[in-house]
Amino acid sequence: MFTIDAHLDLSMNAMEWNRDLRQPVAQLRQREEGMTDKPDRAKGTVSLPELRRGNIGLVVATQIARYVAPGNPLPGWHSPEQAWAQTQGQRSWYNAMEDAGEMVQVSDLASLEKHLLLWQDGTPNDQKPVGYMLSLEGADSIRTLADVETAYNYGLRAIGPAHYGPGRYAQGTDASGGVGPAGQALLQEMERLNIILDATHLCDDSFWEALDYFNGPVWASHTNCRTLVNHNRQFSDAQLKELIARDAVIGGPLDAWMMVPGWVRGKSTPEAMNCTLSVMIDHLDHICQLAGNARHIGIGSDLDGAFGKEQSPVDLDTIADLQKIPDLLRQRGYTEDDVANVMHGNWLRFLRRVWA
Fold first, then answer.
1. Mind listing the pLDDT tens digit for each residue in 135-193?
2. Intervals of the chain under pLDDT 50
3. What is the pLDDT of residue 258?
4. What is the reported pLDDT for 106?
5. How many CB atoms are closer than 10 A to CB 39?
6. What is the SS3 string spanning 136-189?
């Protein structure tokens, strides 16, 4: 089934993990055998051939570069200018993939519909470019608000104001505090340009202030449920209900620590914690119970977002295994329409409404 994945850090993997994503996953793993600089070496799950094999024809692909102020222990860049330059290098990688015929940017209704027709025309998937919509995960790299329009003009269509820790425009996972004047100004500019607000990673204070202030389109590209895994990275039922009321779509991620309670990074294993793709369905199903329907859920896998098979569902070898999800949904009693909406329809309905 045609599938949309609403969150993949493709350029980060290409540029910071030094992975040639045109290669099969098996080849990427082989080249990383023996490397120890990152815990997920030789355990990656994502490449362009695997996206095609899994019929994942459209993704929301990120730029990401954190600014860290003095005293912030998180990894990142020491100035917004450095962070901006990093995102521009990532953008250059996407452009290079377009030049090579591997990817094509989707940034408006016309390009969306054209790309969907391409993936329905019967041509083998390995001859098709993977479509990507550009999103910025964490807004720290925006030097001034003028950068927002610059980025919009090169195709940026969604912004998550925060990532982990304190940020320049909002506060993220494990932090606290609101968006403040700088964040409000960013949200105002996003609303003017019709840029989607990705609420993922906003801490509770920033979440509520942002949604009070922002009147444009909102989604949560990769977020699970706090009721099932009690950590501030996940959203509470009240937050999920607010997103549903705003006609948002919420993508289910496949990072094991966000899926099962009690995960200890570097020690827990998917096998020992019984972390399977069905656990993601638990989170999606919880959102459906809150909504009363299946129109607000989708996939935002976050696969290879600084983790690999060591922290992914045990029944997923590569991202192509997202094609196991339809049967898992059917086993829970979801209708064929529901299954299609989860795999692509809800994201498409959202984008068609925003870009109409």
1. 999 999 999 999 999 999 999 999 999 999 999 999 999 999 999 999 999 999 999 99
2. none
3. 98
4. 98
5. 13
6. EECCCCCCCCHHHHHHHHCCEEEEECCCECECCCCECECCCCCCHHHHHHHHHH
For each of the domains in the chain, give its residue range(s) and CATH number, in order of start.
3-355 (3.20.20.140)
pTM of the model: 0.98
pLDDT of residue 228: 98
Q: Return all residues near 64 (Cβ < 8 A) that are at least 6 apart.
A: 9, 12, 87, 90, 136, 137, 138, 163
The string over 101-132, giving b where at least 16 C-beta atoms fall within 10 Å of a residue's C-beta and e elsewhere, is ebbbbbbeeebbeebbeebeeeeebeebbbbb
Measured CA to CA in angstroms, residue 348 lies from 6, 67, 355 at distances of: 11, 33, 10
- pLDDT value at position 210? 98
* Confidence (pLDDT) at 55: 98
Do residues 59 and 133 make contact, with C-beta atoms less than 8 angstroms apart?
yes
Helices marked H in 75-159 — which ranges?
Answer: 80-99, 109-118, 146-153
- Alpha-carbon distance 270 to 293, whole Å? 30
CB 54 within 8 Å of CB 323: yes
CB atoms within 10 A of CB 12: 22
Give the chain's length: 356
Task: Judge contact between 197 and 214, C-beta under 8 A.
Answer: yes
Which region holds residue 93: left if phi is over 0, alpha if psi is between -120 and 50, else beta? alpha
Q: Which pLDDT score is estimated for 295?
A: 98
Nearest Cα to 3, choosing from 73, 61, 66, 53?
53
Nearest CA to 150 out of 97, 67, 91, 198 is that of: 91
The pLDDT, as a whole number, for residue 162 is: 97
Bridge partners for 59 per DSSP: 5, 132
